[in-house]
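Homework help board

Subject: predicted structure for assignment chain

Our instructor gave us this sequence and asked us to write out the predicted structure in token form, then describe one feature. I got the tokens but I'm not sure how to describe them. Can anyone check?
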Amino acid sequence: MSVKPARTRIAPSPTGHMHLGTARVALYDYLLAKKTGGQFILRIEDTDLKRTVPGAEQEIMDGLRWLGLQYDEGPDIGGPHGPYRQTERREIYQAHAKVLVDKGHAYPCFCTPDHLDKVRQEQMKRKENPHYDGTCRVLAPDEAAKRIANGEAYTIRFKMPQDGVTVAHDHLRGDITTDNKQLNDQVILKTDGLPTYHLAAIVDDHEMQITHVMRGSEWLGTFPLHVNIVRAFGWDEPTWVHLSVFLKPSGKGKMSKREAAQAMKDGYSIFIKDMQELGFTPEGVLNWSALMGWGVAEDDVMTVNQMLDRFTIDSLTPSPAAINFQKLDHFNATHIRLLTTEDLAARLKPYFTREGLAVKDDVLLKIIPLIRERLTTLDDCISFGAFFFKDEVTPAPEDLIAKGLDAKQSAEIAQRVYQILAAQPDISHERCEPPLRAYVEESGLNANQVFGILRVATTGQKVSPPLFESMEIIGRDVCLRRIQNAIDILEKM
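My token output:
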């Protein structure tokens, strides 16, 4: 049985940073389109001009590309169904709104904000749910036309059915039945001639031939409205897929600004740009987000190509998923280990250079095997590898003193280590480790004491990649110079 190619879309609003929810919807859209031989489209829903943030649109496009989710049509690359910014499609929406009015499915509304607020206050006093009271719904078309001709400001409202029920089908949730008495006549065209989401999204999905609409479950409240608009036009409905929501790590409610700020302090974020800067990989982010709402094992490690093999919309789940940053760490570290040495080196280099370090590519390639297993995020490379690219290191004096010893005793050990290494023609692992271990045996010291001093002296830190392999990369002259510096520090204490 052949599968019809799917046309999917991600349609974010440029009102802030691109977040995890947008990335996950985009991933599912991308997987469905590519698996069926269809197209994945980017549309910018920018009709809320007051909330539009400069640079947000570019951040969305950059974020999708960083994730590797290349769209087939979009505002920056064009396509056969453009424009792909809603503000550039004003006339299209106005024409469709007129169609609805002419068919009797919508009507001009002249109610002022003051009137609407007064009605709302009265309804709340009566303990009613605020709703439009239908003042303009009963206006005769001739009267409405006369008021428009006189220059009176108006919106267009969709005329919802008032009797019976609306049955809307969601692919994950089945039939959702709503009593039409609970529905409200929503504004679909604003006084400035721009549409609201309710009209624009429906028109665009039809005009762009979208077959599957995947979006968050927060849109279930207006699902009956959108279904009724589609039916009023007489169009075929897309397959509706309302995805699960993300819950905060506690599993109780959505992430607040305060919790998002705390996550950032802890080295995490729900915003894609931040994740990139914090050293997370696109592979790790996608793997992590994919499994929050996908009915596969929660620890399944998958590349996008592997996801393509397994993905179906039938395997998605409507159950809410709590954000688990520890799992993000797990997936990110795993995908770091799956990168080739060359790929990982290319990704780490910017983190070194932004610290002002002059990176030698041959050295970088050598250190990858030493630090790869220690990396949870890409920026961890600074903690484990910056000392390779420094002319000098500045160890904390107290770190140079071995456990159970004083500064003088530690200095004597450092001097003896210096003598042993200086006597070697090179500082390779094979040549240096045996005489140093012999010294440990002869001295009655333990290895942690001797090698601890050596580690801090040569790397500047108490924790590092394997010591002798690191020293070999650092080089004989630099190591000796750093050990002498450590001796000088200890002798002054």
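Reply (TA_rk): Your tokens look well-formed. For the description, you could write something like this. The chain has a mean pLDDT of 94. That's the kind of observation they're looking for.
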